[in-house]
Amino acid sequence: MESGSTESLGQTPQLSVAPPDPFGSPFWKDLANADDQKAFCSAWLALQCGQIPGVTAGWLIVYDSQGGQDTITACWPKRDFDFSNLSRLADRAHLEHRIVTAQGRVGPGTSPAQPVTLQVGVPLGAGGVSLGAAAVALTTIHGSSAMAPKRVAEHLKWGAGWLETLPWVGRFKNAGAGAAQAMSCLDLLAVLGEQPQLRGMMITLVNDLVSRLRCDRVSLGVLQRNGAIRLRAMSHSATFKAEARLTDAIESAMEEAVDQCASVIAPPLQKAERTTHVSHTALNDAIRVAGTSVMSVVLADNEGKPFGALTFERHGAEPFDRAVQHLAEAVAALVGPTLALQLRANRLIAGSVADHAVAAATALFGPRRPALKLAAAALVMLALVLVFAKGEHRVTAKSVIEAQTLRAAAAPFDGFVRSARVRAGDTVHAGDVLAILDDRDLVLDRLKWRAERDKLQQKQRAALGKHERADIVLTESQIREAEAQLALAEEKLSRASITSPFDGVIVTGDLSQNLGSPVEKGKTLFEVAPLNTYRLILQVDERDVRYVANGQHGTVAIAGMPGRPLPIVLTKITPVSVADEGQNFFRIEAQINDVVSELRPGMEGVAKIDIGRRSLIWIWTHAIVDSARLAAWKYLF
Q1: Is 608 helix (H, G, I), strand (E, B) or coil?
Q2: What are phi and psi of 271, to 5 degrees?
Q3: In a designed cystine with 432, which of 264, 428, 540, 584 is the match (CB 3.0 to 4.6 A)?
Q4: Of all residues in the chain, what percent carry a pLDDT higher than 90?
Q5: 8-state DSSP, 237
Q6: Where are the beta strands (DSSP E) in 252-322?
Q7: What is the pLDDT of residues 130-142, one digit of tens each?
């Protein structure tokens, strides 16, 4: 028969039963030496039941404060009792958050032969936080128990403080273990940092782990490109045989862990993850030592990609437990990125190139990086266009304008410059006076020979009057000589004024600064070029002259008017090269088809000769290919 609250039994008379000595109970030792929460709760319940007079059985439920799920249950005594009534009473006390009492039987069975006990359910917890519930069964004498239910509830609630501190003790214990692990890992990382070489770092790692994890042997292996593990370091062994049976077994165990991307222990731990440990069992058989335990943990880089494994061995000692596994995994997680970085740094050029190639292929053909894929597609389309599209191949050459014909105005005799009316750059017409030489000596010379002629003519007439034939013949020849000298003087006088032979432009010559200076006979005073009749001289590089032929067309852009290209036609290819700025050029003549009035001899520009249509990639790269061929011929063959 149940009662809704403690008030109905509050007036129950108490029996004078002396409680047992609490400090003499062996359950205090069990409480202090409990290994886990289950054992702690069992020891606590036994201690409480031993301190409350008349308790025949007890039941304890500790709930998870977050999820409300049953996490720990304990019963006392540990015999084949039926605790169903106590379990239901404890659940009810927890749900209703109050002390609940009931009458019932607790014992090896629920037959009517079992004595009726007073059952008390008490919720445990403080500060509004429900920790769980406890229920105890009290013997009754004449319907009354040795201790009132309210006193029983107070006793259990006072003792529940032990249960409330239990999670914090576990947390502090885990925190202490985690701090110890972190300190051990940091010490190991500091030791590895003192090694400048990769091999020394690996050997130091396995030798240090042997002592830290109390192992007989620790091995380190690195994943190769073919997917196999190659052993790189073994504790307390400078060298080891690569083909040895034990080495093969260790590498197989490492491959088994890397393939599963998980730690593997043989023999496996209880409640361990489902992992295959065939190779680890084979390694145990290869070691041939009773009680051997083997564990492998995976080494991963900073991206979480496995690149190797660590294998730990204990020969005939205590097997690996969960704490050692966690410490080994923490060490692998800490030193893995450092070892991976050193492995990449110590690879040969071929390995680095292969890594970059694989990374590029993954980025290009993987599910991500759409911008890279679009850029690659654009580059492929551009390459196809350059290969199959055609363009006009043109040869570029420096050019200069020259006159088609050039006339020189030279000094007809030795004399002096009297006046100069034009200079270089002036446009002149046919017959225009360019310069005048001093003719005073010529005028005197003409007067001299004229007077000499008149004198001889008078002498000839006198000889005719006297019929002196010899004198007549002599004077005749002298007269002709005087007339020739007179004609020469008059011719020189007529040439004292230097005139333009045709319409044109003065190319060279400026006598305005040399008035009165002497000039020698035959000296070039001016050069005159005709208007609208020019030729273009091209300087074609010797590497491009093979593409050039007479009759080819092109265009030229003059520096003075770059926005107005002029059409040209090649007329002559001279087989003479000219060295300029460290390169050889061939002189090629071309005719300008569209002559404009702004052209002047001496103007420079850039000409492009149309060779023919070729692929764009050939047009842009043939010069580089030719240079490479020449360099290969020079240095390799």
Answers
A1: strand
A2: 55, 30
A3: 428
A4: 13
A5: B
A6: 264-266, 293-300, 306-314
A7: 788 899 988 876 6
